[in-house]
Design brief:
The strands form seven sheets. The chain has a four-stranded antiparallel beta sheet, with no helix packed on it. The protein has a four-stranded antiparallel beta sheet with strand order 2-3-4-5, with no helix packed on it. The protein has a four-stranded antiparallel beta sheet with strand order 6-7-8-9, with no helix packed on it. The protein is mainly beta and 276 residues long. It contains no helices and 26 strands.
């Protein structure tokens, strides 16, 4: 993905499918290649479901797994498995993508988690808002370590809602309560703390991802933008704005083919190409 290039809209995926009773609110998104098929996996918070979208025999198809509760965060575990936080109950579910969706397991947790990211094959990081922290978990839901990063003696997490893992194994956190993005080591040390003021101030940071080059993309729900940061947490530019049709964005991800996927409150995922 060439983040210096101008992103061009390539596709719009309508997340609402037959059988949905509510307006779709795509929240978090990832892309995986399953059986040579590019598959977009998304949590639809308002329809209590995880969905997959893919093309087979030149037909756009979808899978849907109803959970009965509100899924939020999403992370890839393996080439064909994801883990999903269920925000309103103490659960993380694991799902097989083939490219339809099959519930594999339900992990009972001690807290209600929002953001989630896979750290190693046997550990996850997940963010809680009550109390505000990031927990390192094993695959049975046991808390191995609780991270409450301090600044001047105060916990600088309030509403950590999305997580991702960097190429060096650190944890990126977007927090709309303190209007910041931070990078934490799995041991809990703060690598950087991005909370700018002025023109580049964040208002409502949400979805976050990092690319194979270490660059960071974070959405701002209130500013209708996708922001590009360097690996060390320096502002580069607003790579997508309202002029690009970005309205109230949440989850964001990139694939290995130079595409960026952005979840929008209008019930769609917009797919942009970043290539020269």
């Amino acid at each position: 993905m060439d983040l210096r290039a101008t992103p061009v809209l390539q596709d719009t995926i309508d997340v609402r499918v037959a059988g949905d009773s509510n307006v779709s609110y795509p929240t978090d998104v990832t892309v995986m290649v399953v059986n040579d098929t590019d598959t977009v996996v998304v949590t639809d918070w308002n329809n209590n479901s995880v969905k997959s979208f893919y093309t087979r025999d030149n037909q756009t198809r979808h899978g849907k797994l109803s959970l009965g509760c509100k899924p939020w965060g999403l992370t890839k575990l393996t080439h064909n498995q994801v883990a999903v936080t269920v925000r309103n109950i103490n659960q993380i579910v694991t799902v097989e993508v083939n490219p339809d969706l099959v519930l594999l397991s339900t992990i009972t947790t001690s807290k209600k988690y929002w953001g989630i990211t896979s750290l190693t094959p046997s550990t996850l990081a997940a963010s809680s808002q009550s109390p505000p922290c990031v927990d390192i978990l094993d695959m049975t839901g046991n808390v191995l370590r609780l991270i409450s990063p301090l600044h001047n003696g105060n916990n600088i997490l309030q509403y950590p809602s999305f997580l991702c893992t960097t190429r060096t194994g650190n944890i990126l956190v977007s927090d709309f309560g303190t209007k910041r993005v931070m990078c934490l080591t799995p041991e809990g040390d703060v690598v950087f703390n991005y909370s700018p003021t002025g023109d580049t101030a964040l208002e409502f940071p949400q979805g976050i991802t990092s690319t194979s080059t270490g660059d960071i993309l974070v959405t701002d729900y209130s500013l209708h933008s996708v922001i590009h940061l360097t690996e060390s947490g320096q502002f580069v530019r607003n790579i997508l704005t309202q002029q690009d049709g970005i309205n109230y964005p949440r989850g964001v991800c990139v694939d290995g083919r130079g595409h960026m996927y952005v979840c929008l409150i209008s019930g769609v995922i917009k797919v942009f190409t970043c290539k020269h």
